[in-house]
Amino acid sequence: RHNYITLVSDHHRRRIVWGQAGRDTATLDGFFAELGEQRAARIEAVSMDMSAGYAKSVAKPGHAPNAVICYDPFHVVALATKALDQVRREVWNELRRLPDQEAAKRFKGARWCLLKNPTDLSDEQAATLRKIRRRGGALWRAYSLKEALREVFAGDLDETEVAYLLDRFCSKASRSGLKPFVTVAQTIRTHRDGILAAARLG
Q1: Fewer CB within 10 Å: N-end or C-end of the chain?
Q2: CB neighbours of 200 closer than 8 A, spacing ≥ 6?
Q3: How far is it, in rounded angstroms, from Cα 199 to Cα 162?
């Protein structure tokens, strides 16, 4: 039930150069049709989310034959944030099934302290996060994994360092016993080259 729009921006000039309703291969095909093959051939890199439709359009003959596909780190971290929220909901539903209904009520406000960056937490949210840490379990493991992935892209690391830390994250996520994070690890491995290209090209 969402309405999507695809926007193409110029990284150098930092401005949107094209937009159209939709979020699929055909939508982005419209951009390349307007751009023309000669100008498209000069595109060096395309950064995007991990939507298969966009990558498919960029790879079509005459679209951007010389471009390197880069997967934006924001969207990589968003995968882990979404996985953390899935684990949070599972834990909350488990608490709701307990005889002590107050436990679920106390936990309900935990969402924002888990999803926000640690430096942006209010005092109350920081206190809630400390309680979750003391409790441990699946939720704290999920939070730790999300933060580990965020830290990969938070600094000024080169491609080799990012590659090492990404592989380490994927290994931990795969062994975590948390199904949403196992899926995140698989997705990152599938898109690894594009993620590293984003680190290499800045």
Answers
A1: N
A2: 158, 159
A3: 7
Average pLDDT, rounded, for the chain? 92
- Of 166, 164, 171, 159, give the one whose Cα is nearest residue 191: 166
User: What's the whole-number mean pLDDT along residues 54-75?
Assistant: 94
Does 143 score more than 90 pLDDT?
A: yes
Residue that wins the pLDDT comparison between 78 and 136: 78
Per-residue CA distances from 113 to 77, 141, 142 (Å): 16, 15, 13
> pLDDT tens digits, residue range 33-49?
999 999 999 999 999 99
Nearest of 21, 28, 18 to residue 59 by alpha carbon? 28
What string of DSSP letters covers 145-159? HHHHHHHHHHS---H
Name the most confidently modeled range: 56-60, 94-98, 123-127: 56-60
Q: Are 19 and 6 in contact (CB under 8 A)?
A: yes
User: Kindly report the CA angle at 161 between 8 and 176, in degrees rounded to 5?
Assistant: 90
Axis-axis angle for helices 179-190, 73-96 (nearest 10) = 170
What angle do the packed helices 52-59 and 25-35 form, to 10 degrees? 30
Measured CA to CA, the distance from residue 174 to residue 35 in angstroms comes to 42
